[in-house]
Write a structure and sequence with these properties.
- There is one protein chain.
- The chain is built from 13 helices and 16 strands.
- It is of the alpha/beta class.
- The protein has 2 domains: 3-116, Enolase-like, domain 1; 121-355, TIM Barrel (Alpha-Beta Barrel).
- Helix 5 packs parallel to helix 6 (167-181) and helix 7 (197-209) packs parallel to helix 8 (226-235).
- The longest helix has 18 residues, at 97-114.
- The radius of gyration is 20 Å and the shape is globular.
- It starts with a strand and ends in a 7-residue tail after the last strand.
- The chain binds ligand LOXFGALJ and magnesium ion.
- Ligand LOXFGALJ binds at residues 21, 24, 51, 135, 160, 190, 192, 243, 294-297, 320, 322-323.
- Its EC number is 5.1.1.-.
- The active site is at 162 (proton acceptor), 267 (proton acceptor).
- One of its GO terms (molecular function) is magnesium ion binding.
- One of its GO terms (biological process) is peptide metabolic process.
- Its cofactor is Mg(2+).
Amino acid sequence: MKITAIQLGHLSVPLKTPFKTALRTVDSIENIAVRIMTDTGHIGYGEAAPTAVITGDTLSSIGGAVKNYIAPQLIGLDIENLEAIMMKLDKVLVKNTSAKAAVDIALYDLFGQYYKAPLYKLLGGFRKEITTDITISVNMPEEMVRDSISAVARGYKTLKIKVGKDARMDLKRLKAIREAVGENIQLRIDANQGWKPKEAVSILRDIEDAGLAIEFVEQPVAAHDFEGLKYVTDHVTFPVMADESIFSPKDALKILQERAVDLINIKLMKTGGIHQALKIIAIAEAYGVECMMGCMLESKLSVTAAAHVAAAKNIVTKIDLDGPGLCSIDPFDGGAIFKGERILLQEIPGLGFTDVPESIFS
Ligand SMILES: C[C@H](N)C(=O)N[C@H](CCC(=O)O)C(=O)O
Ligand SMILES: [Mg+2]
């Protein structure tokens, strides 16, 4: 199965409601779709999300990286030797992790099709169903309460609450949400780098003193501030998760060697795809550190790939794969089945897409 062409498309999907974090506000998904054609007629699909504030990747940088750097190196290579292709993909240019992720995902889709097995089975096959949280955007407390009640009514039992924007409001936000949803709903919080280390400790202690049980806090401080992350981890009782601080296996090694966090959020758009994500999973396993599989604002195309990885691995115990649940439409047939908080892997080779609209690539 040899690669004959790598094609780019534009994926535009309105969100149900604006997505707001401490870093950005977005109304729709405007992503790049990738399809890899082969001499056997098999097609692999991938997707890249241009999350400039986190990865530095933009629509034009992703398009340029795939078209001008990655595609010319990969045409003619055989899917059977996935390791050789991945070495080329890694070396052809530095950073550009979202562009690499889209291509890597499409390659793994083909790898599964080549071996006629669903990807999660080839990667370990630990389970075939996982359960995601749903994100509550950072807004005024009343709006966050409305969104939380609506999410619970739709069956979600874990809410990922965005905080870190106007720190004085964060305690009010969490108190109001906990009061509205009761004790049986799990709350995890994501500050998206919005706090300074001492501020984070003070807010988290206030949250604890108020008796507000939270499962963990994600990325409380700036991505580059590994010392600040450790300071928070050492001074609060809640588990601390690294998100924007960990892109590569080297980042994971450094942070875990320093015991700077308790948990890791792995996203294919940060790692550059599944190949590197598997290395981070192996490192985390060696340190006994549980992982969350997360996503950027992505459609079912790439979130299905993340779901296959998450389902395959025992150490991935937390799931934040709510991208498709935030979208107002699903343009694709096949892939994983997203039913509220439940994500079910299908027994179809590769990622299992049966219909991806041609219009995306025209
Ligand atoms: C969509 C997912 N639940 C999420 O919250 N991801 C963010 C970053 C998403 C973005 O800004 O596109 C995160 O975990 O920080
Ligand atoms: Mg995060």
